[in-house]
Amino acid sequence: MSVPTSSSRVAVITGISKGLGFALAKELADNGWCIVGCARDAERLRWACLAIGKDVIGLAGDVADPAFRLQLVETAVRRWGRLDALVNNASTLGPHSLRPILDLEEADLEAILRINLLAPLTLMRLAHPHLRRAKGLVLNISSDAATVGYPAWGGYGSSKAALDLLSKTAADEWRDDGIRVFAVDPSDMHTDLHLEAVPEDTEGLADPADVARALVPLFDGSAAYVSGSRLRVRLPNLERS
Ligand SMILES: NC(=O)c1ccc[n+]([C@@H]2O[C@H](COP(=O)([O-])OP(=O)(O)OC[C@H]3O[C@@H](n4cnc5c(N)ncnc54)[C@H](OP(=O)(O)O)[C@@H]3O)[C@@H](O)[C@H]2O)c1
């Protein structure tokens, strides 16, 4: 049985129950997109999906699980017959939060890379045939920690630096497929992740809803950046980093 193709555009976004992922899912849904998203906490995800809109499917699960990654992409294609955008947003600071390198065990780094790098890589590979058909978009959410080398941020920061290079490489490899790929530093935002990392820093943080609005031009095609550019949000704008 063939799946009817929706006339609406369809995005898979990881980590939609709060923070930037929630704000971006809501912003895109308000602009007519259909969303498949995830988070581990099923109850929080259920409430988030109710707030996002009617064309949203929330799957409770962990992007560290390879079978769950496949489920995310397959659900979008089975339900709506297409996939126009993949947003790798879900992220971890580490199983023990931030640790200086002398305390960073191999197992810590493996756990970080599984979520922040291997999940995006696998999702990009799974999404590729559908994104090629749609001339679609991959948006990998990075961080200033990828470029600065803040003490204790080495595990998280190196995973984001690797994600940046993966994005740039995929942009070149997939240029002829018509797929645009960007890594974006969203800036410091008022979210649980930021609160966990820097609890004392509560002033001047961006509202994730404003950051999500700044990202919309990448989705509606109005942003003229060359695929593979590393971008950053400087509210209210998006700019090359
Ligand atoms: N906040 C900042 O200042 C800041 C700065 C630079 C970059 N960033 C980047 O921006 C992105 C969004 O961060 P945020 O601050 O919005 O984070 P957040 O508020 O902590 O939200 C993270 C979302 O991802 C989900 N998630 C986390 N780990 C997951 C996993 N293993 N599998 C599935 N879902 C998972 C969370 O739900 P569950 O916990 O229920 O799974 C939640 O929905 C991240 O890539 C982060 O690195 C943030």
Short overview:
Helix content is 46%, strand content 17%. It is of the alpha/beta class and 241 residues long.
- With strands numbered from the N-terminus, the spatial order across the biggest sheet is 3-2-1-4-5-6-7-8
Which structural category do the helix and sheet elements fall into?
alpha/beta
Mean pLDDT: 96
Strand content: 15-25%
Poorly predicted sequence stretches spanning 5 or more consecutive residues = none
Q: CA-to-CA gap between the ends? A: 46 Å
Supply Rg. 17 Å
Number of strands: 8
Secondary-structure element order, N to C: EHEHEHEHEHHEHHEE
Hetero groups: NADP nicotinamide-adenine-dinucleotide phosphate
Report the biggest beta sheet as strand number plus sense, adding barrel if it closes. Answer: 8 strands, mixed
Number of helices: 8
User: Helical proportion?
Assistant: 40-55%
General shape: globular
Q: Can you describe what's shown?
A:
The longest helix has 29 residues, at about 105-135. The protein contains 8 helices and 8 strands; from the N terminus they run βαβαβαβαβααβααββ. The model has no long low-confidence stretch (mean pLDDT about 95). The chain has an 8-stranded mixed beta sheet with strand order 3-2-1-4-5-6-7-8, sandwiched between helices. α2 links the parallel β2 and β3 (about 55-60). Helix content is about 45%, strand content about 15%. About 45% of the residues are buried. The chain is an alpha/beta fold and about 240 residues long. NADP nicotinamide-adenine-dinucleotide phosphate (NAP) binds next to α1, β2 and α7.
